[in-house]
Specification:
The complex is a heterodimer of chains A (269) and B (326). Chain A is α/β, with parallel strands linked by helices and 269 residues long. In chain A, 41% of the residues lie in helices and 16% in strands. Chain A contains 9 helices and 10 strands. Chain A has helices spanning 2-17, 35-54, 68-72, 83-92, 108-112, 125-138, 158-169, 175-193, 199-208; strands at residues 20-27, 56-62, 76-79, 100-102, 118-120, 144-147, 212-213, 219-220, 232-236, 239-244. In chain A, strand 3 (76-79), helix 4 (83-92) and strand 4 form a beta-alpha-beta unit. Chain A is globular. Chain A starts with a helix and ends in a 25-residue tail after the last strand. Chain B has one helix spanning 2-25; strands at residues 32-37, 42-47, 53-58, 63-68, 74-79, 84-89, 95-100, 105-110, 116-120, 125-130, 135-141, 146-151, 157-162, 167-172, 178-183, 188-193, 199-204, 209-214, 219-225, 238-240, 246-250, 256-261, 267-272, 277-282, 288-293, 298-303, 308-314, 319-325. Chain B has a 4-stranded antiparallel beta sheet with strand order 3-2-1-28, with no helix packed on it. Chain B has a 4-stranded antiparallel beta sheet with strand order 4-5-6-7, with no helix packed on it. In chain B, a hairpin with a 5-residue loop joins strand 20 and strand 21 (246-250). Classes of the chains: A alpha/beta (269), B mainly beta (326). The interface between A and B is medium-sized, with 26 and 32 residues.
Amino acid sequence: MPLTRTLTLTLLLIGAVSAAEVKIAYVGPSLHESSSGRGALQGLKEAQLQGRFLGIEYSLVEAKPSDSDVLRGSDAILVSGSPDQVQAVTRTVSQQAVPVFNVAAAQNELRTACAPNLLHILPSDAMLAAAVAQWRQRSEAESVVAQAWHPAFVKFAARDLNKRYKASWDTDMDDEAWAAWAAVRIIADAAANLPEGNVAERLSYLRTDLEFDGQKGAYMTFRKTGQLRQPLLVVENGELAGEAPVRGVAASDALDSLGPLVCSQGAAR
Amino acid sequence: MPETFSMKSLSRIVIILFSFAVALTARDPTGYLFVTNEGDDTISVIDAESGGLVKLIEIGGRPRGIGFSPDRTHVYVALGDENAIGVIDAETLEVVEKIPAGSDPEAFAVHPNGNIYLSNEDDGEATVLNPATGEILAQVQVGIEPEGVAIGPGGDRVYVTSESTSMVHVISVPEHEVIANILVGARPREIAFSADGKFGYVTCEVGGEVVKWDLATNKIVQRKKLRREIRLVKPKGIRRGPSGDTFFIATGRGNAVAVLNADTLELEATIPVGRRVWGMAFTGDGKTLYVTNGIDNDLSVIDVAARKELRRISVGAMPWGVIIDD
């Protein structure tokens, strides 16, 4: 018995000494007072829990787009801001291949620019429009919008994520909170699977091997444009009405029926 | 070292003696199926032979995980919304007790020593409950959304999956300490073991795969992705086949039961069943397999040797788990 204990302790100490450290920078509105910030912190808490079991430490620091040194020294960056800010941060760290996660801008142009180190967690305008169009093919409802997330979503494990977020922040999870949560969890997926990997190797893992569980049922991967493939939620008059791809219009695993975009001419890839 | 060794041997002997005692006091089986209906808070008790409803038990509280006590006199049911384990008398079919079991119990396994190891989905814990006294013996911190629980082949390890942390946690018995963590695929749900007790197999629902690991080293030795062969596959339930050389997998929205070779993980057969298949129960003779179809609100009855569905049995709303008293 004492031997077992000693061994366990030794293993823990070894783990602590060789712990991988993942530094995430966050560029956006106040961490504790914005959806993006709260979502990022929720994701961080969950990544840290997994990290404890694997000997990986995660940190999240606020940074300004002008903090080049901080950004370049990070393992990943979340940007909740305008397309200009997203692009400026992406350019700042492009040499280092630090993955930048756009968690708040839906503009199609950001996707078609196809920057190699820029990934989009929030669905694009094209995806949202496609989801609404699919829904309209099936019904004539008037006030229809598509969203990445909804606090009334319970299917799959959405109920659990909504509960965890509400318990942490006493407010409902919205699209921007989900996107920031998902970005941090995706960063953790890459780090857990490649604990010894560098930023470039992890970026490559994200683009080719990721199968992310965003708690919307489907496994999620990135398109060539850097956009996260994902099911969307359809909301009629404020009420959750269904999911897209819309059953009867497209197959439920046909995630590319939702607004695929192609890289513009002269784009990086 | 010698001390640890003898302790382990002693606990094995105790378990073996206990199992003998159980065998001696066993009653005649009723041949009833018990099905948890998550959607309407009931248990369907079905006569397996006739397919007829014997009783609908209004148990309440989002019933999901279900299992027998070691002597099979009682049926335990995880009641997530009541934070309790419901206890049903297997003969009278009355609910005799609801034992507080920590927050949101979802699934569990019953150790041969009688203790219930259960997952508390919404607060990331595994709880060890003595149902005889109602005492909570331990609460072990695991990952997010713990789900599948399995007692290891030797009884000295318990394995718990955490769905949102993508892990299998290895817990020592009787110390109740997490001694290893295995990173597996996305959303791991249920665990089964090889007949020789050397390997574990875990279904990964969102990863669309079955992952096999070595119980001695806790290292993954093989993975089998099922997406290419079974569209929309989301593996959930897993049971070792009666011959020991296969595993049967309930594939969720794959709407089929997959039969995998235990050694190679090759897909040997795909048996079409109902929609969103999750729960599984083999009869004692291994000839028949019952599975729950969560969207069709019924069970599929499968001829194991022929590897085909024979018929359906209607149950309640969103059936989750199934066990058979035979």
